[in-house]
Amino acid sequence: MTGMPTTKTARQARITAILTGQSVRSQAELAALLAADGVQVTQATLSRDLVELGAVRVRGVDGALVYAIPSEGGERSPQSGVTQEILDARLAKLCADLLVTAEASGNLVVLRTPPGAASFLALAIDHSVMPSVLGTIAGDDTVLLVTRDPQGGTEVASRFLQFAGDASRNS
Question: How confident is the model at residue 166 (pLDDT cuts 50, 70, 90)?
Answer without folding.
Answer: low
